[in-house]
């Protein structure tokens, strides 16, 4: 009977130690996962900062004008290519928003 109690105690202690070891292993794995996720977060935060900076640079009027000229061959119109519109007063047609006459129609 004492031998059975001793074996039971040793078995119980072994299971308890194995459970503690398993918990420690899981804690270490979780620590590695947290470290990996923190590294990914740092990389993605730096990438986000870089993209935000790039976005602000791309949104600048000077950059938009340069890209329009380089990629789309757009240029500022010359004075002869423009027309000035003026309203003639109250719209004669209900619902119309702008009634205008054209000045400088010299389109050479």
How would you summarize what this structure contains?
The protein contains 2 helices and 2 strands. With 108 residues, the chain is mostly helical.
Write the layout of secondary structure elements.
Layout: H1 2-58, H2 61-72, E1 84-87, E2 100-103
Antiparallel strand pairs: 1-2
Q: Top keywords for this entry?
A:
single chain; 108 residues; mainly alpha; two-stranded antiparallel sheet; rod-shaped
Using the CA coordinates, give the radius of gyration. Answer: 39 Å
Give helix % range: 55-70%
Strand content: 5-15%
Number of helices: 2
Structural class: mainly alpha
- Choose one word for the global shape: rod-shaped
Euclidean distance between termini CA atoms = 117 Å
**Low-pLDDT segments:** none
The tally of beta strands, per DSSP, is 2
Average pLDDT, rounded to a whole number, is 84
Write out the strand line-up for the largest beta sheet, numbering strands in chain order. Answer: 1-2
Strand count, sense and barrel status of the largest sheet are: 2 strands, antiparallel
Descriptive report:
- The protein has about 110 residues and is mainly α.
- The protein has helices at about 1-60, 60-70; strands at about 85, 100-105.
- The longest helix has about 55 residues, at about 1-60.
- It starts with a helix and ends in a 5-residue tail after the last strand.
């Amino acid at each position: 009977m004492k031998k059975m109690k001793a074996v039971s105690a040793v078995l119980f202690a072994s299971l308890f130690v194995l459970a503690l070891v398993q918990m420690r292993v899981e804690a270490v794995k979780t620590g590695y996962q947290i470290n990996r996720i923190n590294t990914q977060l740092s990389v993605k935060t730096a990438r986000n900062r870089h993209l935000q900076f790039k976005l602000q640079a791309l949104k600048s009027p000077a950059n938009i004008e340069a890209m329009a000229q380089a990629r789309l061959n757009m240029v500022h119109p010359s004075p002869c290519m423009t027309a000035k519109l003026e309203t003639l007063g109250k719209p004669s047609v209900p619902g119309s928003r702008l009634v205008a006459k054209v000045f400088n129609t010299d389109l050479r």
